Hints:
With 376 residues, the protein is α/β, with parallel strands linked by helices. Helices cover 41% and strands 12% of the residues.
Amino acid sequence: MTIPMVDLQGQFQSLRSEIEEGFRQVFASSQFIQGPNVRALEAEIADYCGVRHAIAVASGTDALHLALLAAGIGAGDEVITTPFTFIATAEAIGYVGAQPVFVDIDPQTFNIDVDQIEKAITPRTRAILPVHLFGQPADMGALATLCTRYGLQLIEDCAQSFGADFQGKKTGAWGDLGCFSFFPSKNLGCYGDGGMVVTDNAERAEAVRILANHGSRVRYHHSVLGYNSRLDELQAVILRIKLKHIDEYNRRRRANARLYTAGLQGRGVTPPVEDGKGTHVFHQYTVLVDDRDRLMQRLDAAGIASAIYYPIPLHWQEVYRDKLADLVLPQAEQAARRVLSLPIYPELTAAQIERICQVLIAANENQAADENYGNQ
Ligand SMILES: *Cc1c(COP(=O)(O)O)cnc(C)c1O
């Protein structure tokens, strides 16, 4: 039995006829860019998230980049974010000429530690950019309060949290702007690159729309230096079909997480902690382990994929480390050493989860037995 990290084929097969019919209509219309499916998807996602505006863009990275530009953040500004995320979060801050300021994480949730943000705020700080890592919302209540108190903007990286809510309000709807990715492996993924910015602010929405379309509102009139960052109709067709199932997909991810946690609790593996303030949509199911390399080898030998998100915190990446040589963020550094993500896709079966738990537990127990043997 081989168990991959994600199974995009299984989901495609279940949606195949609907997707092919949608494609057929796009091919017949020959309207591939900025057509009716993109417009409909924007309206459906705005409605789903409970916000007024949604603007489709070419990727999650672009969503972050254009959101920061629309928020007026630029050279000389500082943006507070987490060091324990995918590089794109910090890249986008750099693209607009601003500095990422990394604040350590809460070791329980892996999200930015809100209690440590205040001491990182300077006169140059313009925004906080939390990531809802692995699908668990950051503490948006506390973050919103901080932003109001210090006059900062709140920009959410929701690349891993489509459908998650914090205290009943969707991620993306808490901040001034929310940024989604539709990379194929995300909870809501298309079959290529794609992204979306959501906001309640009409001015910001218009700014993102113009920036994403060559700085143009009226064709061949260019008011600002813009970009080519658009979602195409074929991707919009796929996303509209999958959007109808996203709550069910996320529900299955949560059910899978419950099975894992019941199977692993107290067996030498630390399961992820849900803080209970919202709905965790388990983009990843990430445990803490010791002796990670050996456990990964055992899983691999049993035909089970696993992955490390993320092995190197951002302040240790070559691109930042010269400037940030003195920065010590113990929780992010420790998490990077100990995290291990297991397959959690919606189509995973209970039997597969049981098997993964067995292999992990046996590997841990063998390790303990090996050590006892060595002590004799
Ligand atoms: C995937 C991801 C992104 C970037 O999205 P792309 O669509 O790949 O550009 C940004 N932030 C986080 C946390 C991600 O996981």
